[in-house]
Design a protein that fits this description.
single chain; mainly alpha; 5 helices; 0% strand; elongated
Amino acid sequence: MLLLTTPAHAQQRDFDCVDFVSQRDAQRLYDSIPGENDPYLLDRDGDGFACEVGLPSREQTAAYVMLAAALAGAMISGAYFWDRRRRAQAVKGHDLEDRLAELQSNLRTVTTSIEGIDKEVSARKEAVEQLKKEAQQAEELSRLSANQAEAVKASLRDVISAYDRRTLQINILLAIVTSIVGIGGSVLVSIFVP
């Protein structure tokens, strides 16, 4: 874009319509010239509009740029689709045996996947059966009468008491052994360490 700040600057140079990017730029220079004279002959038909033939307006320039971008996009898309078509035709040219080997390999992969799925389904069926058994046991326990529940409770209390007694005995025994080892270690240290 050609920017001119003063008419004096404009009169130092000879301008033609080809020197401007758009009609609007030429019109700006034309409007900046005082009086009704047109030293550069920018308005050849004398209607007050400079360079109205030959220079695009800003809107036309934008339209040309958009058209060029659309054409470039169309060319790129065409090249892409042509390349895809060429590759597809190249694939068709593969030997039938190669295609068959590839399909067999894919079939083996799918078979292995299906076997894995079957194993998973079997494992989940077993888990469901185990959960059903546990639910049945829980239901049977819930049907116990109060007397039976008290008997189970007393039995469990006896087992827990026996476990607590055994744990206490083991803890006492460990405390005694630890004390003996500590005393023995102290005696040995006092004998052998000067």
